[in-house]
Design a protein that fits this description.
5-stranded parallel sheet; TIM Barrel; 3-stranded parallel sheet; alpha/beta
Length: 309
């Protein structure tokens, strides 16, 4: 008789990082390992939850096709993907942002039942950015994804944030906060652009604009998630996602402890199987899993009438 193993033990040891999960063909490993884990049908567990991925990038390179992202989603039962194509260059011209948005518009036309698109912009192009928001919203896009050209609390962002408040749309911002050393907590990693938004920047904006919907990206992307959650806890208009390739134990439960179960989104940032695994491995109720995988982000979309049925 196979040795019984519970969900948390299985996921913490297997980490769902085996190629078998990515390929939908089961967990790889030795025959004895497969026998030991045979009592737990991981793919049945994966596929039983509706999933809305709040943080996906498509067409970042010629190899990263829209079809590829759909294929990953199909293998893991991800129903909808919120896509964007941020421009990463610091001084890119406005036309590059417009071109990137056109690519997202076309991707949604290719997969209208699977993709939900966000636009991108550079706040220093103030007039052009507001015009671009209108153009993109008219094309069915439902949110903003911005990178680190300008910090989220920079006054250049204020007109953009105010427009997003009017539209009841969320702002997904690349964010980070590195771990400290010897009691010193670094606010910037010297390898990162100094304009990267950190928790304090989000807090300042949340205080100024409590009506804004702010999405702090990838708390499990390598930063100090404990500090991030503590810093953001008193600002209910700041949400976080669990994207990133890091699988530190307790990160999701820690986020729920400090932020509450309604402010945590499922998101992968293209690290699909890691994102699914960490939600399944967390010590959550079934209701909490459903909230994180689907309901929380859908409730935010519902504020502007853009929710999934």
């Amino acid at each position: 008789m196979a040795e019984m193993i519970d969900r948390r033990e299985f996921l913490s040891k297997a980490s769902l990082s085996a190629a078998g999960l990515m390929l939908g063909s089961g967990i790889t490993g030795s025959a004895s390992e497969k026998k030991r884990h045979s009592s737990y049908d991981i793919m049945s567990e994966v596929m039983k939850y509706r999933k809305l991925d709040s943080h996906i990038h498509v067409l970042l390179s010629p190899a990263a096709t829209a079809e590829m992202q759909i294929d990953f989603a199909d293998r893991l039962g991800i129903e909808k993907l919120v896509i964007s194509r941020p421009v990463t260059k610091q001084d890119a011209p406005h036309q590059e942002f417009r071109d990137s948005n056109d690519m997202m518009i076309n991707a949604v036309k290719q997969f209208p039942d699977r993709f939900i698109a966000q636009f991108t912009l550079h706040p220093k192009y103030g007039k052009e950015s507001l015009e671009e928001i209108k153009r993109c919203v008219d094309q069915g896009m439902v949110g903003l994804k911005v990178y680190y050209q300008v910090k989220i609390n920079d006054p250049l962002f204020y007109p953009i944030i105010e427009k997003m408040i009017d539209l009841k749309m969320i702002i997904l911002m690349h964010a980070n906060c590195q771990l400290g050393m010897a009691g010193y907590r670094m606010k910037y990693d010297t390898k990162l652009n100094p304009n990267t938004s950190i928790p304090e920047d989000f807090v300042e904006v949340a205080k100024r604009y409590p009506e804004a919907l702010l999405h702090f990206a990838h708390i499990t992307g390598g930063g100090d998630w404990e500090y991030e959650c503590k810093a953001l806890k008193d600002y209910p208009n700041i949400y976080v996602d669990v994207s990133g390739s890091n699988n530190e134990a307790n990160a999701i439960n820690y986020a729920i402890k400090y932020l509450g179960e309604d402010r945590v989104f499922f998101g992968s940032d293209n690290c699909y199987y890691q994102a699914v695994s960490k939600v399944l491995a967390a010590d959550l109720t079934e209701a909490q899993r459903k909230k994180i995988f689907f309901e929380n982000y859908n409730n935010v979309l519902k504020k502007g009438g853009y929710n999934v049925d």
